[in-house]
Amino acid sequence: MILEMRLNTTTIKIIVRLYAIMLSDEQVNQWLRTRNLNLGGASPLMLINRGMAEKVFEFIREAQSLNELGNTE
């Protein structure tokens, strides 16, 4: 299944924060597509496409302040 991110102000902020934390396109892409237990078991990209980009942004912002992105599985 191919999912694309809808671009808006919040999703652009998400991308900027992820690139500040991660080193490569591959890492950012993998994080966006991997189910995350801290996000209710959904992938960040799924939440973004369901209109919950703000929730993903807040998670990244909080994780960045704690210097971690949480458990992904």
Which helices and strands appear, and what pairs or packs with what?
Layout (H helix, E strand, L loop, with lengths): L8 H13 L3 H9 L10 H6 L3 H13 L8
Helix pairs in contact: 1-4
Description of the molecule:
The structure is a single chain. By secondary structure, this protein is mostly helical. It has one domain (9-65). It has 4 helices and no strands. It has helices at 9-21, 25-33, 44-49, 53-65. Helix 1 packs parallel to helix 4. The longest helix has 13 residues, at 9-21.
N/C terminus separation: 18 Å
Q: Shape, please?
A: globular
- How many domain modules? 1
Largest sheet: none
- What share of residues is helical? 55-70%
The H/E string reads: HHHH
| Poorly predicted regions | none
Report strand %.
under 5%
Average per-residue pLDDT, rounded, comes to 86
According to DSSP, the number of beta strands is 0
SS-based class: mainly alpha
Briefly, what is this?
With 73 residues, the protein is mainly alpha-helical. The chain contains four helices and no strands. 12% of the residues are buried.
Q: Which features would summarize this protein structure in a list?
A:
mainly alpha
